[in-house]
Design brief:
heterodimer; A: mainly alpha; Methane Monooxygenase Hydroxylase, Chain G, domain 1; B: 68% helix; 12% strand; elongated
Chain lengths: 676, 69
C-alpha cells in the first residue's frame, strides 16, 4: 500500500461537500417534519462518491431500488403480518433473490436490485410490530432517501464538481502509457515471462474496471456525456491490444530460437517498431512487404515471419486507432465524432458466475433465517435491529471472495462509532438547542470521518464511521436521550456484525484459489466451444475472455505457486480461441483436403480443452502433431489465398499451444502423407 | 400556494406535481439550448441548469397562483 497523504485538498473538499449535502438534507427533512431525518443524513453518506456523475448514477439506481423495495414491503407486510413464519420466509426469499440478481450484473446497475432487497429489511422489519402504518412508514422512508439523493446530486454537481470524464480520460491515458511501455519492452528485449504476463493481467483488470466505470459517464454533467460510444470503441481497441502483445512475445522467442539471418532481421524489425512506436509506420511497411514477398516456399520460418508482420501491423493499427479516438475525445465536439467513430459492434455482457451468486444468496438466506428465528424466539425488541443489520451487511459484502477480513475491520470501526455516538448523545447533544450549533457539533465528527471516504484504502473505515454514526445517534427532530434504547441498539448492531462474520466464515468464504480455478475453467470451456464451432463471433470471445482474465488477475496474485493454477496464461488461451475462430471463418473457402485436415484439428482441440490440465500432455502432443502435419504438408500444394491464410493462422495456433517447443518436424513420412 | 390533489386515494401536494412538470420542461429547454449552442458560453453547466430549474419552477407556481385567483 502506498503511503499517499490522506488529507489532501481534494479529499477535504469532498468531505466538506458531502457534509454540506448531508446537512442540507437534514435541514429540509426537519422542516418537512419527516419522522426519521437521520436516514437522510446516512443516505447522503451512503451514496457519497468523489465524482459527480458517479453520484447521479448511484443515486438513480438507489432511488429505483428503494421504490421497488418499498412496493415489495407494501405488498408483503400487510398481507402476511399475522403469519410470522410465512412473512419471514417471504422476506428471506425476496432479499436473497435480489442479491442473486445483483451479483449477476457487474455494472453499477446492480445497485438497484441490491437496494430493492435490503430496503425490505430496513423499512419492512420495523413494521412487523405495528403494521397499521405500513403505508406511511414506507412513503416517508422513500421520501427521506429521495430527499437525500436529490441533495447529494445537486451539491456534487453544483459545488466544485469533479467530472467523471476527466478522471476517465486520465485513467485511459495512464493505461495507454503502460501498454506502450509494455509494448516497447516486449519488442526490444527478451521479456521475463512471468512479469510481462502479470503486467498483461493487470492491464486486463484495469480495462475491465474502466469498462464498468464508463457506465457513470452518461450521468456526468460535462460535455463528454455524449461520447459514451467513442469511449466504448476506444475500450474495444484497448482490449484487443493485449492478445497482440502476448503473441508478439511468443513470436519473438520463436524467432530467436530459429536463429537464421531472416529471423534476426525480423527481430530487429520488431525492435525497431517497438522503440520508434507508431511514427515508424512507413519504414515498417516497406520492410514488411520485403519480408512477406520472399520467394522461399512456405516453411515454418516464413510462416513465423508472416505472423510477425501481421502481428506488428495489427499492433500499429490498434494503437493508432486508440490515439485517434483519444484525440477525438479530447477535442471540443465529441458528439460529432461519436457519430463517425461509433462502433457498430455491441460489447457483450460481462462474465457471470452463477454458482458464486447462488452461494452468496444462500449465505444471505441462512444469515437471515437464523437471525430472524432468534428474534422471534427470544422476543428481544432489538432483535429487529440484529436481523436488519446482519442481513444488510451480508448483502453489502456479497461481492467479495472472502468478506471476513473486511468485516472484522468494520466491527472495530463500528465499536468506535458506537462510543462516539454515546459521547455525543449523552454529553454534547443535550446541551445543544438550535440547528446551527448542532451542525457545528456534528461537523466536528463527520468532516474528518468523511475524508476517509475519499481514500479507497480507508473507504471501509469511512463508511463504518459516517453511516453508522447518524443511525446510532437517532438524529430526530426532537432530541431525546434514553440510555437503555441506545445501549440496546449498540449491542444489537455489534452482535449482528459478529453473527454475520460467523455465518460468512462457515458458508460464504471462498479461497482466492477456488475462484481462480473456476475462472480458468470458464476460459477452457469457452475455447472448447469455439473449437466445436459454437462461438462464431471473434469480438465476443475477445471481450468475454479479457473480462475473465481481468477477474483472474486480482486472484492470481494471491495464488500459491504450488497450486498449479498460477502458471496458466489465460490470454494465450484467448489467442488460441481467436485463431480457431479465424480458421473456422476461412474453412468454408479452402480446398477440400485442407478443410478436412482443419476439421480434424478442431475436434482434437475441442477434446484437449475439455480436459483438466493434468491430463493434457498426451492429447496436446497429438494436437501439435496434427498441426505440424497440417502446416508442413501444405507446403507442396498449389495454394489459394484462403489456404495460405489458414496455414498462417495454424502456425499462430501452434505457437499458442506450444510456445516453447522446437519448430515442427515432419513425423509422417511423405509416402504415407500422400496416401492420406 | 397550498393544497393537495387526490390521485386514486393518495393525497399529493400540488407543489410536487409542479416540480415534476418543471423538471420535464427543464429537460426540453436544456436540449433546445444545447442544440442552439448556448452551453458553449456557459461556464458552469450544472449551476446554470439549477438556476434555470428554479426560474422555471418559480414561473410555473406564479402562473398556477394567478390561474387560481
Amino acid at each position: 500500500m502506498s503511503a499517499r497523504p490522506v488529507v489532501t485538498t481534494s479529499n477535504v473538499i469532498f468531505s466538506l461537500k458531502t457534509f454540506l449535502a448531508a446537512m442540507l438534507a437534514y435541514y429540509i427533512a426537519i422542516r418537512f417534519d419527516l419522522p426519521r431525518p437521520f436516514w437522510a443524513v446516512a443516505t447522503v453518506y451512503i451514496v457519497a462518491h468523489p465524482l459527480s456523475g458517479a453520484i447521479s448514477s448511484k443515486s438513480l439506481y438507489r432511488l429505483l431500488g428503494t421504490v421497488a423495495g418499498g412496493v415489495a414491503t407494501l405488498i408483503m407486510i400487510p398481507n402476511l403480518v399475522n403469519e410470522p413464519v410465512l412473512l419471514s420466509a417471504a422476506i428471506v426469499v425476496w432479499v436473497s433473490g435480489c442479491t442473486f440478481l445483483s451479483l449477476l450484473d457487474r455494472t453499477p446497475r446492480s445497485y438497484a436490485s441490491l437496494l430493492a432487497g435490503y430496503t425490505v429489511l430496513l423499512a419492512g422489519l420495523p413494521l412487523v410490530a405495528a403494521p397499521a402504518n405500513t403505508f406511511d412508514t414506507v412513503v416517508s422512508r422513500v421520501e427521506e432517501i429521495g430527499l437525500a439523493i436529490l441533495c447529494a446530486s445537486i451539491v456534487s454537481h453544483v459545488v466544485l464538481p469533479v467530472h467523471v470524464a476527466t478522471t476517465l480520460l486520465g485513467r485511459i491515458d495512464v493505461w495507454m502509457a503502460r501498454a506502450q511501455t509494455l509494448f516497447a519492452a516486449t519488442a526490444t528485449a527478451e521479456a521475463d515471462e512471468a512479469r510481462s504476463r502479470a503486467e498483461r493481467y493487470a492491464l486486463a483488470a484495469d480495462a475491465v474496471d474502466l469498462r464498468s466505470f464508463t457506465a457513470h459517464l452518461r450521468y456526468d454533467g460535462s460535455r463528454y456525456r455524449r461520447a459514451v460510444s467513442v469511449v466504448r470503441s476506444l475500450q474495444h481497441r484497448m482490449v484487443s491490444f493485449l492478445p497482440l502483445l502476448s503473441e508478439m512475445e511468443d513470436l519473438r522467442r520463436a524467432l530467436a530460437k530459429l536463429n537464421t539471418p531472416r529471423s534476426e532481421q525480423a527481430i530487429s524489425m520488431i525492435a525497431g517498431v517497438g522503440s520508434r512506436s507508431t511514427s515508424a509506420f512507413a519504414f515498417f511497411k516497406t520492410r514488411a512487404d520485403l519480408l512477406a514477398s520472399s520467394p522461399v516456399p512456405r516453411s515454418w520460418e516464413s510462416l513465423l515471419l508472416v505472423n510477425a508482420v501481421r502481428n506488428l501491423r495489427d499492433v500499429l493499427q490498434v494503437s493508432r486507432g486508440c490515439q485517434r479516438l483519444l484525440n477525438a475525445l479530447k477535442e471540443e465536439n465529441a458528439a460529432r465524432e461519436a457519430r463517425r467513430f461509433g462502433s457498430p459492434e455491441n460489447i457483450p455482457a460481462p462474465h457471470r458466475d452463477i454458482g458464486m451468486a447462488l452461494l452468496s444468496a444462500l449465505a444471505v438466506a441462512i444469515c437471515l433465517v437464523t437471525s430472524m428465528s432468534l428474534w422471534i424466539a427470544s422476543g428481544w425488541t432489538d432483535g429487529m435491529t440484529f436481523a436488519q443489520i446482519s442481513g444488510v451487511l451480508c448483502c453489502l459484502l456479497s461481492t467479495m471472495d472472502d468478506p471476513v477480513p473486511a468485516m472484522r475491520k468494520f466491527v472495530h470501526v463500528t465499536i468506535g462509532s458506537v462510543i462516539a455516538a454515546f459521547v455525543y448523545g449523552s454529553a454534547i447533544l443535550p446541551l445543544i438547542d438550535g440547528f446551527v450549533p448542532l451542525v457545528a457539533a456534528l461537523g466536528l465528527f463527520l468532516i474528518p470521518a468523511g475524508i476517509c471516504l475519499a481514500v479507497p484504502s480507508l473507504a471501509i473505515i469511512g463508511m463504518g464511521l459516517c453511516i453508522n454514526f447518524p443511525l446510532l445517534l437517532n438524529l430526530q427532530a426532537r432530541q431525546s436521550s434514553d440510555f437503555m434504547m441506545f445501549a440496546n441498539t449498540g449491542i444489537a448492531t455489534i452482535l449482528a456484525m459478529i453473527w454475520t462474520i460467523v455465518v460468512c466464515n462457515i458458508f460464504r468464504s471462498v479461497r482466492a484459489e477456488t475462484n481462480a480455478r473456476r475462472l480458468f475453467f470458464v476460459t477452457q470451456k469457452h475455447v472448447a466451444r469455439i473449437a466445436a464451432g459454437r462461438h462464431a463471433e471473434a469480438h465476443v470471445t475477445l471481450h468475454h475472455l479479457i473480462d475473465v482474465a481481468g477477474l483472474f488477475s486480482a486472484r492470481s496474485a494471491k495464488l500459491s505457486p504450488a497450486s498449479g493454477a498460477s502458471d496458466v496464461d489465460l490470454i494465450r488461451d484467448l489467442r488460441t480461441g481467436l485463431h480457431i475462430t479465424a480458421m473456422q471463418e476461412l474453412a468454408d473457402e479452402v480446398s477440400m483436403p485442407i478443410r478436412l485436415k482443419a476439421q480434424a484439428i478442431f475436434s482434437g482441440l475441442e477434446i484437449l480443452y475439455r480436459l483438466a490440465p493434468a491430463e493434457r500432455s498426451e492429447p496436446l502432443e497429438i494436437a501439435i502433431g496434427l498441426l505440424d502435419d497440417f502446416i508442413l504438408s501444405t507446403a507442396d500444394m498449389v495454394p489459394t489465398d484462403a489456404d495460405t491464410e489458414l496455414v498462417v493462422h495454424a502456425a499462430g495456433l501452434r505457437l499458442c499451444l506450444a510456445p516453447k517447443a522446437d519448430f515442427p518436424i515432419l513425423i509422417t513420412p511423405p509416402s504415407k502423407r500422400n496416401a492420406a | 400556494m397550498t393544497g393537495q390533489f387526490d390521485l386514486y386515494g393518495v393525497f399529493l401536494p400540488w407543489f410536487s406535481a409542479l416540480s415534476l412538470c418543471a423538471y420535464g420542461l427543464l429537460r426540453v429547454l436544456t436540449s433546445l439550448l444545447d442544440r442552439l449552442g448556448l452551453y458553449q458560453a456557459v461556464w458552469h453547466r450544472s449551476l446554470f441548469n439549477l438556476a434555470l430549474y428554479i426560474t422555471v419552477l418559480g414561473g410555473l407556481s406564479a402562473l398556477f397562483n394567478w390561474l387560481q385567483t
